[in-house]
Amino acid sequence: MRRPPAANSIPPRDGTPAAPGQETPVPGPFARTVSNCCLALLMIPVALLTWFWFEVWHSDHVTAERERAATRSVAVQAHEASDRATRALNSARPTAPDAVIAVIARHTEAPLVTYDPARRTYTAVASWTADYTSESFSLNGDGYNQVERCFTLVFQRPGGTVWAVRSAERHDRLCSSGTDIAYDVTLIRSRIEGVPLADLTRTELARAVGSTRGHLPNLLRTVRRSPDTVVVTVLVRTDPGGTPVEQCYGITSHVDATVGRAVNQVISVPLATC
């Protein structure tokens, strides 16, 4: 007589159904634990990749929003500066070109301010900046960045009554020219500051204004003296990309003895012509 198969026998591997009365083996506790651990180990990389993707997306999104906010801040700065200059012009009502340029330069801090007598317009070229932090997904932490935009501000009196201004953002070499000229003017002022007026001879002044970081040397135009003041006019020049850009500046060295000792105060302002 044929004996029935044992209850714990292994079923055939050829896909044939188990014989009647044959039970399918149930995994034991150890096998179930191993299966759960393997599933957990497979889920860990998936979770890490999902988290990493989200962090990168979030960092880029936050950084882009901060950059847009900084760009808006720069535009607001340019608008506020042009408004201040316009209000000052309408309040002071200067008529001489040098006086108008002085007002515009004081309120916009533009290194380039030119006068077009044919159109009776004054054009200022200036840059404004705003800082922002980039949220970087790295061990180094956040980084600091800066947005810089260059604007052209055109001042005019339509009908000869009230001053008005129109502005436009620009992206050409004239903006870098303004940066070069501002650097040269600051360098000239630092060379003159602290030098006794008696030592500010024309030769010394020519040496102070002549050497710059640009390819075109600056030109000393005039020197005027008084007992406590030396006023020079300088044609500051630069040539980005081979296109010369010039701006006339008046630089004044004044002895101020009210602070207890003779100290040279050097101021500079753009002029219409040299």
Explain this structure.
The longest helix has 64 residues, at 29-92. The protein has four helices and eight strands; from the N terminus they run ααββββααββββ. It has 274 residues and is of the alpha+beta class.
The helix-strand sequence is HHEEEEHHEEEE
The total of helices stands at 4
The major pleated sheet works out as:
4 strands, antiparallel
Structural class: alpha+beta
Strand content: 25-35%
Shape: elongated
Strand order of the largest sheet: 1-2-3-4
Q: In terms of quaternary structure, what is this?
A: single chain
Residue stretches low in confidence (pLDDT < 50, at least 5 long) are: none
Kindly state the percentage of residues in helix.
25-40%
Rg estimate, integer Å: 37 Å
Number of strands: 8
How are the elements arranged and paired?
Elements: H1 29-92, H2 97-108, E1 112-116, E2 121-134, E3 143-156, E4 164-170, H3 173-192, H4 202-210, E5 219-226, E6 229-238, E7 245-256, E8 263-271
Antiparallel strand pairs: 1-2, 2-3, 3-4, 5-6, 6-7, 7-8
Helix pairs in contact: 1-2
